Amino acid sequence: MTEALRFLFGGRARRRWIHLILGGALAMPYVLVGSVIVGPFTGVNDVFASLPLQLGSFAVGLPIAAVTSLFPLTRPLESGAARALCGVGADALARGPARTRAERGRTAAWFTLHLGLGGIISGMSLAVPPFAVVLIVLPLFASLRDRPLGLPESLDHPWALALSPIAGLAMLLTLAACAAACGALLARWAPALLGPTPEDRLAAAEARAADLAVRNRLARELHDSVGHALSAVTLQASAARRVLDTDPEFVREALAAIEDTTRRTVGELDAVLGVLRDGDTPGTAPAPTLAADLDGLLRRTRAGGQRVTATVDADPAALPPLVSREAYRIVQEGLSNALKHAGEPVGLRISTADGHLEITVENPLDTCPAPRPGGGHGLRGIADRVRLLGGTSQAGASDGAWRLHVRLPLKGST
Prior knowledge:
There is one protein chain. The protein is of the alpha+beta class. The protein folds into 2 domains: 2-196, no CATH class; 204-409, 2-Layer Sandwich (Heat Shock Protein 90). It is built from 11 helices and 5 strands, in the order αααααααααβαββαββ. The protein has helices at 2-9, 11-42, 51-68, 74-85, 101-137, 158-194, 198-242, 248-276, 290-302, 321-341, 378-388, and strands spanning 308-313, 346-353, 356-364, 392-398, 401-409. The longest helix has 45 residues, at 198-242. It holds the Pfam family HisKA_3. Keywords: ATP-binding, Kinase, Membrane, Nucleotide-binding, Phosphoprotein, Transferase, Transmembrane, Transmembrane helix, Two-component regulatory system. GO terms for molecular function: ATP binding; phosphorelay sensor kinase activity; protein dimerization activity.
């Protein structure tokens, strides 16, 4: 019972009723145009004095409404009204004008359906309530039974007077049921007639995927560059503080490394944030590569007191630019993980074999400190970079050491 009352008189039903009344109001100009056509055709001057002629004018006006619905603004306006009043989800309706013939046809069908059902419900909403109220109060007012309103003589019988309030209530319930059913029908058909086509959905999905890919790439860049810089600066500052009074030369080297690290990171951060700012041009700081900054990366890492042994059996300058750039980030993240979580010494090996660039970062497990809270995105970022280049990556414990091993294909990486 509660569900039935909510379906007939709930907030959603009332909004859909308003949507139908709006359709009836939009139908009125077309009904007037139809009456101009029906009147001379039937030879009747007052078309609105006859219900059949009114319905004929309404039927003639609907095709005219279908033609005018081809204007570009019709679809966005109808979609907005259906979204606000019919309770249809925003993603289920298109926002732009109809572009193809099929979309224009569906828009015309929706507009005709909206105005047709809206005109019927509007007419019923104007005519039914006053007559129903008269039937409800008819037994209480004898003056109404003198037929000033043109009521039929059958209502003078006692049984008719007893049933007239019930009939009035039934008419009101029937009106509410018709309005609720028509509103539900429009809400059901709105996604099919006003919704985006499969091509539109595919284009939107591709746009979202492209946007997500850009966001993921920027997130990886920020994590790798800024995360590594903060880890390195923290370790360098901590090491410098411990030997401040005993090894001034080491302190100077650590401070110089901190300065170099922060300067480079600010440049990289500006380049990444430039992409995020609407209307701004991206920063001009070049993306670091193995050929340009491998030695600097190792120097800044060692400046914090971390023992790093590096074996490079490849020519960084001969690597494809994309591989060199992504390999730099992978090495940077591997060393960053070693700074935060690993023991000493850290071994780095870069070599080429079978048309692949191989990167290995390992450290002994028995000297690993307790894990620090937070993090957890570094290895995922490495896996994403490797997958985009068509390579493979492995990370985990092996033979008493923690090892990160990456293989990147050199051919086709342009």
